[in-house]
Amino acid sequence: MSRLSWRWWPRNKDKSSDDAELSSKQLRDGDRRQLLQALSVLAGGGALAAMSRPTEAKDSGDLPPPKRALTGRDEAGKSVFKSFDVTPKVVEIDANPGLTFYELYMTEGAPRLTGLEPDPMLKGTKDFPAPGGSLFRLISYPPKRPEGYKPPPGVTFESGLRELSEKVPGMGDHFERDAPGMHTTDTIDYGVVVRGEMTLELDDGQKVHLRQGDCIVQNGTRHRWRNPLPEPCLMAFVSIGGKRG
After folding, report:
1. Does the reported pTM lie above 0.85?
2. Are 136 and 101 in contact, with CB atoms under 8 Å apart?
3. How many whole angstroms separate alpha carbon 242 and alpha carbon 239?
4. Binning pLDDT at 50, 70 and 90, where does residue 21 land?
5. What SS3 state is found at 208?
6. Helix (H, G, I), strand (E, B), or coil: what is residue 72?
7. For residues 232 and 198, what is the distance between their CA atoms, to the nearest angstrom?
C-alpha cells in the first residue's frame, strides 16, 4: 500500500464505529483514485510512446497531387461545384526535377462574379497578373540538392530559364542572370508554407526560415527561395498585380 493510502488509516483504536467506517471508505476511495491514476499514467505513456515513434517522411511522389474545388452557379442561380479535381494546368519543369506549378485560378481586373465564367486555366497560364489582376498557384519545390548534384544532361542555366518561360509564359524573364534564383515582380504576393520548410532571402543576405503554416507578404521585393531540407516543400501563393511607385 502506498504512502498516500496510509494517511487515511485509523490510528486510534477507540474511535467510534462511524469513524472507522468513514476511514475505511476513505481508504477504498484513495486506493481507487491511485489505481485510476496508475492506469492513466500507463495509458498516457503508451500514447506518448506511440507519438514518439518516428514516421517515415513521404517523398513527393508518394503524395497525391492537390485537388481544387471550383464553385459557380447553375442556371437557377444556386451555388454548385463545377469541379473537384486536380487543376487542368499542372506544369513540371524538366530542367529542375521536382519543381512543379499547380496553376489554380486567375483573374484580370475586377472579376465578374456571375459564377458562369469558364475555368480560366483551360486557356493556359502566365507569369504574374497585370495591375488589378490576381493569380492563385501552388508551387512544389524540390528537396535540397545533395553535394555534387548535377542537372539533367544538356541542361544549362539559360536553357532552364527558357523552359520556365515556355511553360509559364514570361516567368524566366524575372530571374537575374548574375544571381541565380533572385527575382523581382510587380506584385504583392501572399504566401503560406503548406508542407515542409523554406528559406526566404532578401537583399544583403537577409534571411528568414519559414516552417509549415508560416506566412509571408512579398511587397514587390527582390528575393529568392531555398529549400533547406532533403524533402519537397509545397507553398501556396496569391499574387495581386500592382504598379511600382
Report:
1. no
2. no
3. 9
4. low
5. strand
6. strand
7. 10
